[in-house]
Design a protein that fits this description.
mainly alpha; single chain
């Protein structure tokens, strides 16, 4: 998923939809949210 997110960011940047910095920050935030969801799901399964 990481590679797809990076490619999506570049497409949005080159398409003029987002600034480069916002693409980088949003990828980092998305990873943090995904990690948190994964952690909470693991806790519910145990």
């Amino acid at each position: 998923f990481r590679q797809a997110a990076i490619e999506n960011n570049w497409a949005r940047f080159y398409g003029g939809i987002h600034f480069h910095n916002s693409c980088l920050i949003s990828t980092d935030h998305g990873k943090m949210v995904g990690d948190l969801v994964n952690q909470r799901l693991k806790m519910k399964i145990k």
